[in-house]
Amino acid sequence: MKIKKIRLVNFRNYARAELLPDARMTVLTGRNAQGKTNVLEALHLCCLGRSHRTPHDRDLIRWGEDAAFVSVEVLHRDGTHDVSVTLSRADRRRKVVRVGGAQVARIGELMGHVNAVLFAPEDLSIVKGGPAERRRFIDMELSQLRPAYFYALQRYVRALNQRNNLLREMLRSPAARATLDAWDEQLALAGAQIVRHRREYVQALREAACACHRDIAGADEALDIAYVTQLRAGDGLAQDMLRLLHEAREQDMRRAVTSVGPHRDDLRLTVAGREARVFGSQGQQRTVALSLKLAELSVVERERGEAPILLLDDVMSELDPRRRQQLIERIDGVQTIVTCTDLSDLAGARQGAVYRVEAGTLRREA
Ligand SMILES: Nc1ncnc2c1ncn2[C@@H]1O[C@H](COP(=O)(O)OP(=O)(O)OP(=O)(O)O)[C@@H](O)[C@H]1O
Ligand SMILES: [Mg+2]
């Protein structure tokens, strides 16, 4: 997959801008707060229909303007796809997504047309942060990879909210209990699908990440990854989830919150047998984060048969020369868009195109 063109209109601090990325590496360089990350954010919007930085679409519209527009022209093995997103301030729910010129009815239909892996310094929180950060990491990539997962996640979140609302209502009127069974069933069905996809994905991720980690850190600091869930291994996941919901029911009714299910699951990351979140040094945690991102790249490539694009937001300056070298070697052949404030951070990397970013303008320099 290669991106041929990105066009921004009234997106963040850009009035109008166009980027023609190189087939290999494109560098966006400029001082702080000029609009480098904004370009990556626009691409992310075309991958997943949302920003990686804000849940509020209106934040993306240029101040003082009514609508923002982003389009991406992407070349797949089977031809060119055009993807565009229009956001309007007047109606917050109005997000128009077009694929090949035709408006899609559901955001899920966007998934997979433009596939990207984004790596930014904040990704260290996948290792250092709480379980929610790790679930988000899995959800973002799996949603792009498999629309069925994205839809299951939507159904799950909806059922979870409904069940929690019902639990609160039951505190006041116990008769509301009558519909609890129905929500449990919906939750169990969607939850089982989520856990099944996540287990498969984590298994693939584990192999790739462990190999990367071994190359970077050496064999005596082995990384391990496990998906942590209360659901039992094997088939009958939905039955099992239903059993957990029933067992937790009394407690859930007292606390008016759903205490079991994939919304509480986690990814366990260990280095040499110890939890990286708690015992890892800064450097070890960075290596784990880098290994996870590189693993994501190779899992997507294997599943889809073509590499996604890689977006590197200011990560080079954070890596020591050895890790930087590993990264550069591994992304050879992958279309990459990288931001930096200082071009010397990219010494040793082959730079196809260089754009100077200044106050919401893009100027090609090389
Ligand atoms: N909706 C908006 N309309 C206009 N300008 C905006 C909007 N949202 C953000 N900005 C501006 O965009 C700029 C930030 O852009 P961006 O995050 O891309 O910077 P950057 O070049 O990546 O900087 P850094 O090197 O610090 O990461 C800020 O100056 C901010 O004020
Ligand atoms: Mg930035």
Describe this structure in words.
Strands 2-1-4-5-6-7 form a 6-stranded antiparallel β-sheet, covered by helices on one side. A 6-stranded mixed β-sheet has the order 8-12-13-3-14-15, sandwiched between helices. Helix content is 42%, strand content 23%. The chain has 366 residues and is of the alpha/beta class. It folds into 2 domains: 1-115 and 308-366, 3-Layer(aba) Sandwich (Rossmann fold), CATH 3.40.50.300; 123-305, Glutathione S-transferase Yfyf (Class Pi), Chain A, domain 2 (Up-down Bundle), CATH 1.20.1050.90. The mean pLDDT is 94. Strand 14 (353-358) and strand 15 (361-364) form a beta hairpin. The two termini are 23 Å apart. The structure holds adenosine-5'-triphosphate (ATP) and magnesium ion. Residues 36-37, 313-314, 339 line the site of magnesium ion.
Keywords:
366 residues; alpha/beta; Rossmann fold; Glutathione S-transferase Yfyf (Class Pi), Chain A, domain 2; 2 domains; 9 helices; 42% helix; 23% strand; globular; binds adenosine-5'-triphosphate
Give me the secondary-structure topology.
Blueprint: E1 2-11, E2 14-19, E3 25-29, H1 36-48, E4 67-76, E5 79-88, E6 95-99, E7 102-103, E8 116-119, H2 125-128, H3 131-145, H4 147-172, H5 180-217, E9 223-228, H6 237-255, E10 266-271, E11 274-275, H7 276-279, H8 282-304, E12 309-313, H9 321-330, E13 336-340, E14 353-358, E15 361-364
Parallel strand pairs: 3-13, 3-14, 8-12, 12-13
Antiparallel strand pairs: 1-2, 1-4, 4-5, 5-6, 6-7, 9-10, 10-11, 14-15
Helix pairs in contact: 3-4, 4-5, 4-6, 5-6, 5-8
The protein binds adenosine-5'-triphosphate (ATP) and magnesium ion.
Magnesium ion binds at residues 36-37, 313-314, 339.
